[in-house]
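Progress narrative, Year 2. Work on NADH dehydrogenase [ubiquinone] 1 alpha subcomplex subunit 12 from Volvox reticuliferus advanced from sequence curation to structure prediction during this period.
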Amino acid sequence: MSVSGYIGRLLDVSNKKSLASFLGSWEFGKMLLDGNLAHNILFRGPSGNLVGTDYHGNKYYENNTHTYARRRWVVFADKFDYNITSVPPEWHGWLNYINDYNPTQHKFKQPIYQIEAYVTRTGTPKAYNPKGSWFNPQKRNWKKYEEWTPEQKA
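Result:
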């Protein structure tokens, strides 16, 4: 693919109309700092075969001409604020060569206790806050003990 093709693809992905508007955006700075984003969008994405998409919108690619352990990769749905916890367990196994079963063509046996995978809530208002946390709305009673007072007989 030519340089103009890469630039066109980059503008397409970032929803920018011109190269000047992209160069002045925060996405450009993020792409420079995060080599993974630039590498996946510009180089790996066009060269691989789309294997499937998960329920979070992440796309999974494979290219068997690359070296082993670099043949499979994910392009996250949210390209500028992605989180690795958005990869479901079945795709995690496929990405890391734990199994070779394509999750779009293979039905895995579900344990009875399994719940649907979700993106971690850490750092968000929905994060878990234990009893003593500053952010927990129900404040903890910090008394170590309470004195025992015997009942008074009337």
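The mean pLDDT is 77. The first strand starts at residue 49 and ends at 53.
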